[in-house]
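Format notes (please read before filing issues)

Several people have asked whether sequences and structure tokens are stored in separate files. They are not. Every record keeps both together, in the order shown below: the sequence lines, then the token lines. Line labels are part of the format and must not be stripped during preprocessing.
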Amino acid sequence: MIKIWTDAAEAGRLDRHGERGSTFVYLPGVAPVREVSLSMPVRLESWTAPFGLLPIFDMNLPEGALRERLRLAFAKATGKFDEFDLLAVVGRSQIGRIRFTGDVEHLTEDVPFQSVDEILQRRRDGDLFHYLLEKFAA
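Then the structure lines:
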């Protein structure tokens, strides 16, 4: 299960639905300002996708080289690694209104320190992308 946060306040829970789907439910009594999307207003009934994640959550997944790097690293360790697992891994690091944590975790603002000088040097050396991928995807 994944906790869903909007503006640093817990809004609901996302869970697996069947073999490949997902279900999102708002917490009881959550305020309408905590809605995750205009197309998913606060209600008692859950929101379900029979396959994959609901679009509002799917759009928060990394793409390209970062996604593949994470998939390979975690699939090797866990055996099975799908979109739900990927969201659980990267969710707390999102930039924006919606963030995600594990079921027993709380949202924190701990961001790794990054030296501007180091970024500029890597950029001059031509390996900035690989450096950032290695540092933040590891």
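For reference, the curators noted about this record: The helical segments are 55-58, 64-78, 83-90, 116-125, 128-137. The longest strand covers residues 9-17.
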